[in-house]
Design goal:
418 residues; alpha+beta; BirA Bifunctional Protein, domain 2; Rossmann fold; 2 domains; 15 helices; 16 strands; elongated; binds histidyl-adenosine monophosphate
């Protein structure tokens, strides 16, 4: 027996109401703030991610699904959504549009991690990117959108963690002080962190192992090493967040797991543990240039849909039911079946959602099915009705029924409840 690959899951019809709900809230906030939808391919040149997310990150080193296609190109299933959007921005000359260009996406993301609750090998993200302006007011806009999005879903108890990790001017000095801090404490570090110390010392700050967390408590803070430009940006951002009354906590150990970030980084967290990040983002002012475009500052954010749904369920947030067929067509006899098939086509043409059991079930079984599906109105055609060109309209809740001419069925269904 085949099963869905480990770390993936089927989204069955009974789950779809949650997904449509989250997607609708995502699209709504984007429409409200002038973000337009973009869709990029499910796979890209693997180099795009090695270049942007960065070698030495878990995503690139351990989690990318790479493959060679038949033309010999090295491809990767998208392990994150920002680099593809930047690639599209450069490729399609979006720098010629009024800046910032505001884009959003709902897409599948592939990461070969160890599957656990809230961590999948294929997950879905709602992401947004605002490309082409360095104004800290744009950071505040994106952070506020993230918050408004979770609030609009009805989620409670999440926090917003914020940090600035500087830029290529001030980061080297910070990394130096971080490295010398850790160099004296290597015996307390896990083997992964000892390796990271050489390649990517920022990542030591968010290691989840207790011994490493203890060492990380007293590390030098990036916000104490900001250059004047980054310091001004950080102060302006905090002023804008205060203006918006946007609650947040400065978290000196927040560094994020992707290398392209500069200045602002933030995460929305809920509860404890490794899967507590509901979403995250930040500025990436050098990325477009690194990918071959003109120097273009940008900021973005992405939210994991599965984790949102997990928390909606945990908090018992009700989501609207999806619409059901309005009409069920049932029949008894061959002639009646032909009449029913025509009726059903006519109802659908009139844009009334209509369903029938089809097959050879008894009338009783068909009515049971209509009931089980929760369809309120049933159109019944028997041989006699077919001969008279009429149907019986039955209201399932009251059990009331009456005969109407087939040609006035649509008008009847649209005008009156039985
Ligand atoms: P990220 O933090 O790697 O950022 O992913 C964003 C969110 O996706 C996470 O906060 C989490 O909710 C969810 N997520 C990540 N990995 C998994 C997984 N294996 N299973 C389930 N959910 C997961 C990015 O990807 C950046 N591109 C965000 C961004 C946009 N930065 C700037 N613009």
């Amino acid at each position: 027996m085949y099963q869905a690959p480990r770390g993936t899951k089927d989204i069955l019809p009974q789950e779809q109401a949650y997904w449509r709900y989250v997607e609708a809230k995502a699209s709504a906030i984007c429409q409200l703030c002038g973000y337009e939808r973009i869709d990029t391919p499910a796979f890209e040149d693997a180099g795009l991610f090695t270049r942007s997310v960065g070698q030495g990150t878990d995503i690139v080193d351990k989690e990318m699904y790479t493959f060679q296609d038949r033309g010999g190109g090295k491809m990767a299933l998208t392990p994150e959504g920002t680099a593809p959007v930047c690639r599209a921005y450069i490729e399609h000359g979006l720098s010629n549009k009024p800046q910032p260009v505001r884009l959003y996406y709902l897409t599948s993301i592939f990461r070969y991690g160890r599957p656990q609750a809230g961590r999948y090998r294929q997950h879905y993200q709602f992401g947004l990117e605002a490309i082409g302006d360095a104004d800290p007011a744009l950071d505040a806009e994106v952070i506020d959108m993230a918050r408004q999005f979770y609030l609009s879903l009805g989620l409670e108890g999440f926090s917003l963690q914020l940090n600035s990790i500087g830029c290529k001017i001030c980061r080297p000095a910070y990394l130096d002080s971080l490295t010398s801090y850790y160099a004296d404490r290597t015996s307390h570090l896990c083997p992964d962190c000892r390796r990271r110390l050489e390649r990517n010392p920022l990542r030591l700050l968010d290691c989840k192992r207790p011994s490493c967390q203890e060492v990380a408590e007293a590390t030098p803070r990036s916000i104490d090493h900001l250059c004047s430009g980054c310091e001004r940006h950080w102060q302006r951002l905090k002023a804008y967040l205060a203006l918006l009354d946007l609650p947040h906590e400065v978290n000196h150990r927040l560094v994020r797991g992707l290398d392209y970030y500069t200045r602002t980084v933030f995460e929305v967290q809920i509860g404890e543990g490794a899967q507590s990040a509901l979403g995250g983002g930040g500025r990436y002012d050098d990325l477009i240039e690194e990918l071959g475009g003109k120097p273009t500052p940008a900021i973005g954010f992405a939210a994991g849909m599965e984790r949102i749904i997990l928390n909606l369920k945990k908090q018992g947030v009700p989501v609207p039911a999806l619409s059901q067929p309005e009409v069920f067509v049932a029949y008894a006899g061959d002639k009646a079946k032909e009449a029913a098939i025509k009726l059903m086509a006519g109802l659908r043409q009139a844009e009334m959602a209509t369903i029938a059991a089809l097959g050879d079930k008894s009338l009783k079984a068909q009515l049971r099915q209509a009931n089980a599906l929760g369809v309120g109105r049933v159109v019944i055609v028997g041989e006699e009705e077919a001969a008279r060109d009429t149907v019986v309209l039955r209201d399932m809740a009251s059990g009331q029924q009456r005969e109407v001419p087939s040609r006035s069925l649509v008008a009847e269904l649209k005008s009156v409840s039985l």
